[in-house]
Amino acid sequence: MSLNSLKKLFAGLSLLACSSVFAAPVTIDVGGIQSGGQFGDSRNTVYSYNVGAGATILSVNYSFNVTAYSPSWLSEIGFAISDSSVTEGVLFTPGFLSDFGGTASYSDNVILADEGLGFNVGADGLLRVEFYDDFNDSAVNPDSIWNFGTITITYSPDIDPPTTDVPEPATALLMGAGIMMMGYGRRRRTLQKIPTA
Q: With 50 as the cut, is the pLDDT of residue 141 above it?
């Protein structure tokens, strides 16, 4: 096998390997989200994202602008990321010590493992994100609004997930592309010009 064919073979195999190593981050546009009460309150905004069974949540990067309506304080506004059963997760209070109402912007990048806060989602693969207010100020509803910005959550898929008979569409696509690359490398070799003596 020629060096050129080996290069193409490795390129095809690398493409196959990428399907299980990389996962696109979850990015949430927070514009317009409302917080109605304490964590778990039915008035809060809650999203769920399928990140794959057993995925490890790695980091959270946020940059947003929020408004706490008086008598609520900015220090009460938070968001939580957790597994769907809310048995593992992390609560974020970006405006900690901002004990006043009004509007402010917050940003940070948190590597969860560095803080001892890394966790895995459950077998259903669902990541739950809830936007809440630490104190339920019954005088106003909602207590706060998220004006604009994003929250980006990176995760690593489970490298040893339960086996299934049918691969996910993205995996099947990448496997097919890898096999085509290997076939292309072989075809190119068989169609090469015959060297003259």
A: yes
